[in-house]
Amino acid sequence: MNLERRPLLQKNGNNIKQVKYIMVLHTCLAFTFSGIGSLLAVYFHQHLGFSEGMSTFFTNTTLATKYLFALLGGVLVDTVLGKFAAICIGSLLFLLGNMLLFGPELLGKFLHTKFEYDWIVFTAFYLGSVGNGLATPSISTFIGDQFSPEQEGTRAIYFSWFYWLIQVSAIVSNLAIPFLMKYFPLYITFVALSGSLLFGIPTFLVPFKQYRKVTPSKSTYPLFFNVLYHAIRNRRRYIFSQKVGTNFHWLDPALDYYPPQTVEDVKNALNVMLIFLPMPFFWAIFFQTTSLWVFQASQTDLVIAGFEIPPNAVTALNPLMNLFLIPFFSHLIYPFFKRRKHPIRPFTKMTLGFITSALSVVCAGLLQAKINDPTSPKQTVLLILPQYFLLSCGEILLSVTAYEFSYIQSPPSLRAMLMEVWILTLFIGSVLLSLVGLTDLGRNSIL
Questions:
Q1: What span, in angstroms and rounded, lies between the C-alpha atoms of 220 and 215?
Q2: 99 to each of 116, 130, 337, how far by Cα in Å?
Q3: Whole-prediction pTM value?
């Protein structure tokens, strides 16, 4: 083993101390991003005075900015920057965006004046989204880079903790930030979000000399599109040359220019992309949890057991339910059908995921109809639970399945590109919902 490149990885594979430092930054980034997501809609509406529709628009364009730069950043990471540099630059931009938020609030508190700083707020949110988009996608693969091939079992354990930390960070942040906003001065909220990054970034840099840093390689995009180009351009000549068989594929003409394995990889990549086609519509439903459904919660009775909760605290329901539903499906539901010789296939899971996600919208619409009925008493916020439950089930059945299935089916040479296409579905979904915010549907808090 090359100990010079991995000084903290010993032959027994047990000494991987630097991964824990990455996990600390990962937890801090997840906490801050989830906190920002939980406050955006309420902040735009209550503190900046925008309508619910425009607040939905700005909330989801902020998310769209993150995913757009995650997509563009993925190309830069793979070809120019490398993962370590992307994590450092992205985290610092994210921190700068958060510090721009609490600076004017803090000055206003001590100078006893109110600043008109809408342009600073938008700069801060979108700058933070750019930074988060650069840093977050690189962290998971950077963790994987720290392990040697023989440490596959240990790596799997760390990735399980990786996903668990995302959920726990989201729960803590989605509960803490709304209550901070409601019961403390606003600058306290932004200080808490910035403080998380101020702790995480220096911690991440402690063992920077020990990290294994993989050199950026060439982008796979040119190869992918060149195969498509030559397949289309050479189609007529390939057919007239009588090479067409019963199993002819429209990419086969590219075989005159590229090895069979390369063309086969592109075929498999296109098949995976077909799985991604409906995903933007799911994300357009899913992202309602941080905007439209928050406004819906604000129209209900928020008092539970004599205590009033902030409306944006409902954003914690999704990660909280995921903590219980993921093992429920993985260790009970799926094995139950497998033992009875009726395993649930990936496409069946995805179909069921779409159905449950659609039913969550139906539940939201029914609740909104009750809210809008002037003859009905004010509805309790607990009635929002069924739509969150159905959507969480839909996320596990659809999103988790599609991601796992696509990763397995992706050709290794094009896997990084396909993960960026996955991020593209998130971007399109957030754009779709931001456009909904500009319509009457956005003002009625249902899709």
A1: 15
A2: 17, 15, 51
A3: 0.78
